[in-house]
Amino acid sequence: MNDLPVIGLSTGRMFLEGSNLTGMERVIVNGDYIGAVKKAGGLSVPVPPVCSPDEIRQYVKLCDGIIITGGLDAAPILYGEMPHPGCGIFDLDMDRTHIELIREAIRQGKPLLGICRGMQLINVALGGTLYQDIPSQCPGCGGHSYTYIRGDAVHSVTLDEGSPLHRIYGRTVLDVNSIHHQSVKECGKGVEICARSADGIAEGLCVPGQKILGIQWHPEMLLTKSDESLCLFADFIGQCRS
């Protein structure tokens, strides 16, 4: 165990255009994740967006826990579907790396936290499916991509009594931000939905008996305005210490 728990953060990538650096790949991760891990007592290590299985194995071995961060949509082919017209941009090679990162963390028994896209990918990695576009595939569901200032809460979620989220937050109703248009549809093996919005959209998942938790909102962004979400990261870092 390291003095500070080392937390592997999944990363994204972008390719520069319109300059003498056109085509250069940049590895990216939002600084709010790094700040949240630091505030909770951990040390962040970025995991490159495209890695070989051997590299992934070494990164997971190096880390005390893994956070799968938010980002692009998940490639529908990973759960046996063709892209829906409402599906956004995805990066299949990156998705495959993140799926393997999730599975390797589970194999090595490392605590795993999925945020937004990360929650969705945990479900896919365990054999589940997604709604590719909530507005067009879930009639009657409200919009879920309407946080304009990242630290602002815009709707409430209900946490199941006795669930890990209920234990962490100490209550059953939580106000959260919302920046997504995809969500869990059919649950993967062992996955249980432990939080929902008022319109029934899955907002949290867990796998009983394992240190796996996923949330659809962005607590790292809420932390820019209030420490209310620090308990989530503190609990995760605590699991990584044990």
From TrEMBL:
GO terms for molecular function: gamma-glutamyl-gamma-aminobutyrate hydrolase activity. Keywords: Hydrolase. One of its GO terms (biological process) is polyamine catabolic process. One of its GO terms (cellular component) is cytosol. PANTHER family: GLUTAMINE AMIDOTRANSFERASE PB2B2.05-RELATED (PTHR43235). InterPro entries: Class_I_gatase-like, Peptidase_C26, PuuD-like. Pfam families: Peptidase_C26. The lineage of its organism: Bacteria, Bacillati, Bacillota, Clostridia, Lachnospirales. The keyword Nucleus does not apply. This is Gamma-glutamyl-gamma-aminobutyrate hydrolase family protein.
